[in-house]
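Table S2 (text version). Query chain:
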Amino acid sequence: MNTDLQIMQEHLKFFTALDQNKTERLYNYLAFVLEANQQINLTSITNWEDAVIKHLFDSLTISKLAWWTDYSLILDLGSGAGFPGIPLAITYPEKNFHVLEASKKKVEFLKTVKHHLNLENLLILNERAETLAHQPDYREQYELVLARAVAELPVILELAIPFCQNGGIFVAFKGPHYSLELERAERAIRLFGVKLEQS
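Corresponding structure-token output:
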């Protein structure tokens, strides 16, 4: 068996929603990211195992939260190379994912991925978040909004919350050193009436 595929299977065995077909599609996607990264700046991570852990594993962790099954329309804000939206779209074809990215080069990459992987549950949006949030078709339309490695919390709250339905959830993927960001985000948290939970 392909060693890279074995590495992926070992690290992702925690995610029971993955079958062989989904795992192979994740493998093809990550290989495509690392190959395209030589021409387009998609990620600073170039080692295969590191990419599996820091991109795929990290993207899929949200699916282990108890409320994950409750939501079917999800926005990935500032998707970049497609994390976390594309790994989640591959793993959960019954859910609808919209990925928002301002960079035209990255959007062209995302479109190529969508075509090659036949991701019918994926919609790619090429626009700035602050612009799209004023369009009625997108403002307050999402049950769940995700943002990973986009900006510091005070900024990303102002970008993300306008997309959330009343009672919707916004999840910011953050590393272990987020306490200072939380302090700086206090004004935005009060302004938007956000209820804060940490997982």
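Notes on Table S2: The chain has one domain: 3-192. The chain has a mean pLDDT of 88.
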